[in-house]
Amino acid sequence: MTNSEQQDLLVFERRESAVRSYCRAFPKMFDRAVNATIYGADGKEYTDFLAGCASLNYGHNDPDMKQALVDFISRDGIAHGLDMHTNAKRDFLETFHEKILAPRNMDYRMMFTGPTGANAVEAGLKLARKVTGRTNVISFTNGFHGMTLGALATTGNAGKRGGAGMELSGVHRAPFDGYFGDNVDTAEQLDILLSDSSAGIDAPAAILVEAVQGEGGLNVASKEWMQKMQAIAKKHGALFIVDDIQAGCGRTGTFFSFEEMGIEPDIITMAKSLSGMGLPFAVTLFKPELDIWKPGEHNGTFRGNNHAFITAKVAIDKFWSDDQFQAEIQEKSDYLEQRLQSIADKYGFGLKGRGMMMGIDCEDGDAASDICEHAFENDVIVETSGSDDEIVKILAPLTIEKETFAKGLDVIETAFDCTLVDKNQRSAAE
Ligand SMILES: Cc1ncc(COP(=O)(O)O)c(C=O)c1O
User: Fold this and answer.
1) Nearest to 256 by CA among 215, 210, 220
2) Could you give the CA distance from residue 377 to residue 297 in angstroms, rounded to a whole number?
3) Ligand 1 centre from 289 Cα, in Å?
4) What is the pLDDT of residues 228-282, one digit of tens each?
5) Is residue 281 in contact with ligand 1, taking CB distance under 6 Å?
6) Which residue in 248, 409, 281 sits closest to 344, CA to CA?
7) CB-side exposure of 250: number of CA atoms within 13 Å?
8) Closest-lying ligand 1 atom to the alpha carbon of residue 118
């Protein structure tokens, strides 16, 4: 970093809270971004393998979303309308129903919550507790559901939980699929525990799960396990909630991460890429019969971002009107898997995740961080995931150009080679 760049970043050091995080891994002033490329203020190009933590599945500044938003703003379209009826909201509701829900035979009500994923999770938890009259929620080891107190209570990570400053209650943590290895059926275990009135677990209001654990290490739930979890929820009078905030909107290959699992969650949470353009926007979907909210019972000033209604509708029309985008994701996922597998094989590491949500388990957080640092020095933005940040996680925009993708993965491969060879040489020398 040049002296003038360092000077430029001083304001963040002096004026912004110490809570900032991503900017520490990527100490650079960024300015513009197009699809999978982010440009530094100095014009330097970076390939984005982080994609706003899966908020930019359709890349940065998609030209059609951008144009629609510019047109909407230019004609004084309503930017903020509380939860009043607007043309933008109507169009989004109709499009989401027609192109996402109806073709999948899904009948859900949409609740516009505050604009973050955590808001959608809070609403889902609150509704499940209200419907069942129960408090306890089952969530899973390594699960991540957000940083507000209710969502944080369902989150596994000790560091994040520690920030609460108070007791986090109302949650029982169960082992995720595969937590004890392939031979232990953690769904069966949970069923046994919930069936035993002396096992010490209060009857649950909900079972809350991610189909692929985004922050918790790209752990993948199998179709069978998800089906069992849904059945267990039903058997024990709980609602089945799938948090699709990170794994949804095409990230795993289909619009919803669980589409090919033959399940029908009672509640689904969505945020991140739903707006299509990185605008704050979240929804909680639930079966119509669960809609027992009283008007205004779960309120908020920023529910239903009209700018996001505009861009989200374009995203759905453009990418989900037919199967073409899904086929492209499949092709890119296959390519990603093949490239990552060959790197992983070289070092005896395992592959994690599925679809365009994959990574390599380096079994060591320091090594994974060194690899990401090396990649950044070579103009690729990539982050870690997992209990000890041991997974190098690739979250490229689903729209990434093939050549950019290939070049970025070359940088990742070199980062592994340089970092691990260096490490090995160092340990041999010690
Ligand atoms: C699965 C999942 N749920 C909830 C959240 C929280 O979303 P937000 O950060 O927008 O509050 C995240 C964020 O990473 C997530 O990955």
Assistant:
1) 210
2) 49
3) 26
4) 999 999 999 999 999 999 999 999 999 999 999 999 999 999 999 999 999 999 9
5) no
6) 409
7) 31
8) 11
336: left (phi over 0), alpha (psi -120 to 50) or beta: alpha
Q: State pLDDT tens for residues 70-117.
A: 999 999 999 999 999 999 999 999 999 999 999 999 999 999 999 999
Give residue 384's identity as a one-letter amino acid code.
T
Determine the longest span between alpha carbons in the chain, in angstroms.
Answer: 69
Report the nearest atom of ligand 1 relative to the CA of 148. 11
Neighbours of 29 (CB within 10 A): 13
Spatial separation of the C-alpha atoms in residues 354 and 246, rounded to whole Å: 12
CB 352 within 8 A of CB 359: yes
Contact indicator for 272, 249 with CB cutoff of 8 Å? yes
- Give the DSSP letter of residue 353: E
Instruction: Decide: 262 and 70 in contact? Cβ < 8 Å.
Output: no
Q: Which pLDDT band, with edges at 50, 70 and 90, does 6 fall under?
A: confident
> pTM of this prediction?
0.97
Tokens of 285: 């979907």
| Cβ–Cβ < 8 Å for 309, 91 | yes
Please indicate whether residue 215, judged by its CB atom, sits closer than 6 Å to ligand 1: yes
Handedness of CA 283, 96, 393, 415 (dihedral sign): negative
* Residue 279 Cα to ligand 1 middle (Å): 14
Is the C-beta atom of 144 inside 6 A of ligand 1?
Answer: yes
Complete domains list, the chain, with CATH: 47-63+326-429 (3.90.1150.10), 77-319 (3.40.640.10)
Quick check: CB of 122 below 6 Å from ligand 1?
no
Ligand 1 within 6 A of CB of 243: yes
